[in-house]
Amino acid sequence: MADGVRKNEAKAGKNRLVVGLSGASGVAYGIRLLEALRELEIESHLVMTKPAEMTIGYETRLTPKAVAAKADHSYNINDIGAPIASGSFKTDGMIVAPCSVRSMSEIATGVTTSLLTRAADVCLKERRPLILMVRETPLHLGHLRNLTALSEMGAIILPPVPAFYAEPKTLADLVDQMVGKALDLLGHQWPQMKRWGEDLNNGKRKSSNRSSPSARSAAKGEVPVAGSRASATLASLEVGQGFLGSSPSPRKPKPGRRGK
């Protein structure tokens, strides 16, 4: 029964995702994504460009063959007859991680020359989610115009920007947070993703319908309770101190009057 359900879901494209690795720096994102999909029991279909295979050698201790083994299905970059090249092959969408400027530009123009960009083009024409983890900086006007065109066509531009609020301790933590963010956009919850207000103490708030003493004081126009960041700032401004903590210069007595 369970096998039958899985087969039906596969035919419907559920729990099936295309993963593209292009030649930009940051292949760790794509590799970790493949591992996450396996943990989530999501069928992965991988396609890598030749520059991506080179970058794997530069940035990791893995081989392209070892990376391909992490996917359920892997295709040659020139295999235009692969299943993911057709819109009739149902999937949940595609994530290109990382996405080089060349791959991004091909997808933006629709002039595709490889299986990776063709698979991405299929997602756009079939109105399926396409997430591009564009890895380039700085960006010139041509890059920005292509990114704008992609966004207008329905693609999601997700630059791999580190989330320091998640309190990363290692580079692996930064990679996991970005992979989790990409999966979030497709409706998949990965346990390694740290969420503000849930997993991180700084984002948690006590649930209460009663207003706090500091809130009641502020409503009455009273000085906020000392100790909070906001009250400390307001208190410093109250006595004429700036954000740098400089003390105000003493007022000089007016001529003819004695200073008190």
Main attributes of the structure:
alpha/beta, Rossmann fold, 2 domains, 260 residues, 11% strand
Please provide a written account of the structure.
The protein contains ten helices and six strands, in the order αβαβααββααβαβααα. It has helices spanning 2-11, 27-39, 50-59, 64-68, 101-109, 115-125, 141-153, 171-184, 213-219, 229-238, and strands at 16-21, 43-48, 73-75, 94-99, 130-134, 156-157. A six-stranded parallel β-sheet has the order 3-2-1-4-5-6, with helices on both faces. The longest helix is centred in the last third of the chain and has 14 residues, at 171-184.
Give the topology, please.
Blueprint: H1 2-11, E1 16-21, H2 27-39, E2 43-48, H3 50-59, H4 64-68, E3 73-75, E4 94-99, H5 101-109, H6 115-125, E5 130-134, H7 141-153, E6 156-157, H8 171-184, H9 213-219, H10 229-238
Parallel strand pairs: 1-2, 1-4, 2-3, 4-5, 5-6
Radius of gyration: 27 Å
General form: globular
Strand order of the largest sheet: 3-2-1-4-5-6
The DSSP helix count reads 10
Residue share in helix? 25-40%
Helix and strand string, N-terminal first? HEHEHHEEHHEHEHHH
**CATH fold topology of the largest domain:** Rossmann fold
Count all strands and give the number.
6
**Which CATH-level-2 architecture of the largest domain?**
3-Layer(aba) Sandwich
> What's the structural domain tally?
2
- What is the CATH homology-level superfamily of the largest domain? Flavin prenyltransferase-like
Low-confidence stretches: 223-249
* Beta-strand proportion: 5-15%
C-alpha end-to-end distance: 92 Å
Under the CATH scheme, which class of the largest domain?
Alpha Beta
- Helix and strand content put the structural class at alpha/beta
Q: What integer is the average pLDDT?
A: 84
Main sheet overview: 6 strands, parallel
